[in-house]
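Q: Fold this one first, please.
A: Sequence and structure below.
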Amino acid sequence: MKRRSQEDRRAESDRRIIGAAIQLIARKGSAGTTLAEIGVAAGYSRGLPSERFGTKHALLDAVIDRTEAAFQAQLAIDVGGKSGLAAVEARMEAHVNGALRSPDGVRALYLIYMESLTVAPELHPRIAAQGNAYREGFVRHLREARRAGEVRADTDLQLHATMILGALRGVLTQWVIDPAAVDLTAAKAALVAFARRALTSGVVAPGKRGRAGSDA
């Protein structure tokens, strides 16, 4: 049997430490979780997380890195080659699918979001930048939809992207607070349907435009 290299062993221990951190933070938040607890939960010494990451802030950054990588992978699957309104809807679904497939990761991330406003302000710039990136993703697809005539020409892209992201985060925050009260699968379908109605209200289909013109 081939012996693993020191680099492999280190990478595995880092993965286990980050995984343990996600599970503990999902249960009691980052403020209620110590580096020592994370080390024990990962199956190592109490001091290994400090040795590897130095500070709790650095470990929380690694947790955000892990959850963001998982989301981007989910996004690539759900959006694929779609564009325009179809991509807007797929991007919405990706946010909720992340919670359905990796509940601990999304719950931990949302608790970190909340704590960045209170007990962990050093994380706030990164959390704000992440939100801006998500919003710009919606703006990009809404711009495609506007060019394709799928939404009105006077659609305020930034405003609608903000509303969409706000609705998603509102539902997911409710789920974090009381998981039993929120059916994420039903909420996903309802959110997508609501966004489609709001974005396509007043849009005339290409075929109907031609008929309307001939009747004039």
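Q: Good. Now the second chain.
A: Here it is, same layout.
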Amino acid sequence: MIYYIAAYLLKIILTIFRPLKVHQKEKLPQDGGYIIACTHTGWVDILWLGVSILPTKINYMAKVELFQKPALKWLMGKLKAFPVNRENPGPSSIKIPRKLLKDGEIVGIFPSGTRTTEEVPLKKGAVTIATHSKAPIVPAAYVGPNNFSDLFKFRKPHLIFGDPITLDPDLPKKEAIDKMMDDLNKALIDLQNRIK
């Protein structure tokens, strides 16, 4: 209940500045769990991604530092986020999202960190989780306001989804993983360029 209250309230607040234009939402799988791997340049994209697929919920992988204060830890739990230690990821970094995906849930990951250039390589978390869970990755790109001050510029936000990416069963595992990483990187760049 708290997730929906927070999500719909955020949607109302963000829409005051400019409504989100969602492109190719039909690309999202209609059944089964999947990963959404989205570009990330600020905190606004996290909020817009979450409200863009309501009433479907997204379970966000979030940095462990956000769970260190009791009140924030409680809130993150209610918002269906789970912690990951980015410096020293442990077994739970794979175990928790695998269970969520097996249960048909959606996992949201930002594989680019907060990179601002295309030359910075993607982090491997999304592909690693997809490999272990045999779940598809849906690439997504956001272009629009990145922070609080950007919202007051009333810049139009756009979010675009791409075709799901799956592990190629005909390739050796290492080659298939490398190809999946390459496909995801190309898809994110292509999607971002299409809505700039």
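Q: Anything worth noting on the second one?
A: The chain has a mean pLDDT of 87.
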